[in-house]
Structure formats: C-alpha cells, structure tokens
Amino acid sequence: MSNYVLVHGAFVGGSYWADVAALLEHEGHRVDVVEQLPSVGTDAASLGDLEADTDWVKQMVESVGEPVVLVGHSYGGMVLTELANHPAVAHSVYLSAFWPTRGQSVVDLLGGGPLPDWLVLRDDDTLEMTDDVEVRRQIECGDVDPERASESLRRMVPQSVSSFGAPSTAPERRHPTTYIICEQDQAVPPAAQEQWAAGADRVVRLPSAHQPMVSMPDRLAAVSTQIQ
Predict the structure, then answer these.
(1) How many CB atoms lie within 10 A of CB 201?
(2) What domain range is 219 assigned to?
(3) Phi-psi region of 117 (alpha: psi -120 to 50; beta: other; left: phi over 0)
(4) How many domains does the chain have?
(5) Helix H segments across the chain?
(6) Residue 228 has what pLDDT?
(7) CB 80: neighbour CB atoms within 10 A?
(8) In CATH, what number is assigned to the domain containing residue 71?
(9) How far apart are CA 105 and CA 100, in angstroms?
(10) pTM over 0.90
(11) Can you tell me the distance from the alpha carbon of 201 to that of 30, in angstroms, rounded to the nearest whole number?
(12) For 9-65, how does the pLDDT look when each residue is reduced to its tens digit (9 = 90+)?
C-alpha cells in the first residue's frame, strides 16, 4: 500500500481527482486530496502565493505520518518542486506539470512574454481563464465531450497573479521522480513537458489532453500504482 497526496493545478480545486482517488483507494491505497490551494478562490484579497501553497501541502504531507507519493498536476508541479527535499516525500509525480529550476516562475516557464490569450488578467490582481466555456474545454480537456466537461469547467475560479510570478527555490531533490507527459495537451505544450521530463527518473506518456484524471482516470490510476 502507498500513501498518495494529490495536488490540483491552477483555477480549479481537488474535485477533478475524484475518479482517480476512488480507483487508488479501491486498490487499498491511502489517498489525500488537496481540495483547494490558498492561491485559488473567489476572494481576491485573501489569495496566497506559491509559499502559501507549499506550506499548505507540506502540512498535509506531514499529517499522513508515512512517506507519500506526491502527485502534482500543472501548476501543482511548482509546489512539488518546493518540496523536493522534504523527508516525508518518497516519490514525486509531475503530471503535465511545471518543473522549474531555481529562480523560475510559471510566467518564466510560459516563455516570459505575454500570457496566452486564454488567460485574462483582472483588475484585482488575479488571473482567470476565458469565460468562453468551449475554449476552456479545448484547453483543459478537449478529449472530453462538452456535456460531461461543462460542469467542472464552469466551476473554475481565479488564481492569484503572485502565485504565477513567484520564483521557485528549487531545493536539491532527495527522492525519485516520474513525469507523465500529456501528448495532446493544449495548456502546457508537450514540447516543454518533454524538456522538463528529461530530468525525471521515469517518463510516461498518455494520449490525453491536459486533464487525464477526467478523460482517462483508469489509465492514470494504473500508471500511479506502478510507482515504487
């Protein structure tokens, strides 16, 4: 049995991990899902940054009481990187996730220039995805039919600008890593994923868009259970 802590990405909460969590638990594993990082939410004034997110996940990891497999999706990879030297993390899994070197932020990893046009900068210093639900679907889960995807896409909420601009401390890693590349991803370019994955101990490729936990939870869970 393994202990999993699942970290969501930007603009969302932990609900999209539900199917994967259920499959892992069915196999006898313990699963803790981060329901909402401090950097995500509707109250702009209270949103945190990367440091707040890291502290939140660190507390969850330590509460398990046993070594964990820490899985981070998309922006969640920034948090995984901050916990690279934490003794309670036995293995990190980057799922279509940003993997910075020291000093790099999400903005840097997106190219350092203007943000993609499907990201909107709000007056309250938050970012949100376009309000066009179909564009959201194509970016996040283009391999999921519109009816099935619509509910989760409408629940997307703003993300603090500070979390995207915060530089990583990228401490020296003390445990092995797996990188899962999503080959049809429209949010995080597969070419960038391939580059980051070069630093992993193990690389897995899935023929999915950005959210395989929605489109192919069984395959994602199967990959996760193979991690030692």
Answers:
(1) 12
(2) 3-225
(3) alpha
(4) 1
(5) 18-26, 50-64, 76-82, 106-109, 133-141, 146-154, 161-165, 190-197, 212-215, 217-225
(6) 61
(7) 27
(8) 3.40.50.1820
(9) 7
(10) yes
(11) 24
(12) 999 999 999 999 999 999 999 999 999 999 999 999 999 999 999 999 999 999 999
